[in-house]
Design a protein that fits this description.
The chain has about 375 residues and is α/β, with parallel strands linked by helices. Helix content is about 25%, strand content about 25%. The strands form four sheets. It has an eight-stranded parallel β-sheet with strand order 9-8-7-6-5-2-1-10. Strands 11-12-13-18-15-16 form a six-stranded antiparallel β-sheet, covered by helices on one side. Strands 3-4 form a two-stranded antiparallel ribbon. Bound molecules: alpha-D-galactopyranose.
Length: about 375
């Protein structure tokens, strides 16, 4: 590579994920039940439903696309489920204006026992670049005694060496505090917790949990996020069975406050208009994608009643009033809770009703239903 080419490649890697990545991933709904037809139909649906226009550009295949390696060590895609091969699939996805993401693992095997990239990092990165991959989710199963930071850095180096700018998603579940080293290791985002489950507040025996538990674990991590490197509280369960519509709306609003990657995990082909309207709410997405890239956090908690806030590039604040309890309740906050003096007059706009609620001075309150949110923008005069 010439110096000039090297600088160009460097620059394009450095301008990846300047806002949190948005897209769709196969895992939350389909697990290993993926195939070429499903992925192509999902690509079509992403365009038709308006998801792409709303910003969801990465279509990511998770675990189970791979079955082995050939005698030269090249990774082999499942020939029954992906008969046309991954390159052809990537071409199809690109032809729709989407970007294409894939999944591997830093250990010897993926979480579903498929071949991992351990020992094949540079070879796999070259294969991905050749196929036209734009995003790699890199998991942490079967890692034995491997050092996490070194393992992720190795794959980041391999991706850079392969030359094609590929968003690098560290999926290490927060075990070794990746927020402390993920950026340095070359990651654009890193999972902060075990897997999200399609429920409000359940937990399972291996550490999977509903979104409210994930939410609690984000408090204190906000300083580590910024343009090009994001905390990842895991993919969305919006629209999946196990969450009510109100809970889906709460989940989505709070992920926007967290500057979280918005990776939908529902069945886009069959989603209802209600769920599509949640996922494509332009005003909430604008909060998530705010160019300042400053992650928000919880600024007030009184039992089940919480206030989450985020500073935006134009000096305004996005605020979510979240009622975790079982009964409707009034939630209030003062301007001082969101970093303004109480003497300030500000316009308050409801981001779900899409209407201005009027001018307020010093405080705002609203009635919030069970497991629901009211999400507003507070815009100083
Ligand atoms: C891990 C990851 C999940 C998913 C599965 C696939 O559990 O955290 O997001 O990728 O593996 O096997």
């Amino acid at each position: 590579m010439s110096m000039q080419m090297q600088t160009k490649a460097q620059t394009s890697f450095d301008s990846l994920a300047l806002t949190p990545p948005m897209g769709w991933n196969s895992w939350n709904t389909f697990q290993c039940n993926i195939n070429e037809k499903l992925i192509k139909e999902t690509a079509d649906a992403m365009v038709k439903s308006g998801m792409l226009a709303a910003g969801y550009k990465y279509l990511i295949i998770d675990d189970c696309w791979q079955v082995g390696r050939d005698k030269n060590g090249n990774i082999i895609a499942d020939p029954v489920k992906f008969p046309s091969g991954i390159k052809a699939l990537a071409d199809y996805i690109h032809s729709k204006g989407l970007k294409f993401g894939i999944y591997s693992d830093a250990g010897t095997k993926t979480c579903q026992g498929r071949p991992g990239s351990r020992g094949y990092e540079f070879q796999d990165a070259r294969t991905y670049a050749r196929w036209g991959v734009d995003y790699l989710k890199y998991d942490w199963c079967h890692h034995g005694t491997q050092n996490a930071e070194a393992s992720y850095r190795l794959m980041a180096q391999a991706l850079r060496a392969a030359g094609r700018p590929i968003v690098f998603s560290i999926c290490e579940w927060g075990t070794n505090k990746p927020w402390l080293w993920g950026k340095k290791a070359g990651g654009n985002l890193w999972r902060t917790t075990e897997d999200i489950l399609n429920c409000y507040d359940c937990r399972n025996d291996w550490g999977g949990m509903g979104f409210v538990h994930i939410l609690d674990l984000q408090v204190g991590l906000q300083a580590y996020a910024g343009p090009g490197h994001w905390n990842d509280p895991d993919m969305l369960e919006v629209g999946n069975t196990g969450l009510t519509v109100e809970e889906s709306r709460s989940h989505f609003s709070l992920w926007a406050i967290l500057a979280a990657p918005l990776i939908a995990g529902n069945d886009i082909i069959h989603m209802s208009d209600t769920i599509r309207d949640i996922l494509t709410n332009r005003e909430v997405i604008a909060v998530d994608q705010d160019p300042l890239g400053k992650e928000g956090t919880r600024v007030k908690k009184e039992g089940d009643l919480e206030v989450w806030a985020r500073q935006l590039a134009d000096g305004s604040r996005a605020v979510v009033l979240f009622n975790r309890g079982e009964k409707k309740a009034k939630i209030a906050f003062q301007w001082t809770d969101i970093g303004y003096p109480n003497t300030l007059k500000a316009e308050v706009r409801d981001l779900w009703k899409h209407e201005n609620l009027g001018k307020f001075k010093g405080s705002f309150s609203a009635e919030v239903g069970k497991h629901s949110v009211v999400m507003v923008k507070v815009i100083p005069e």
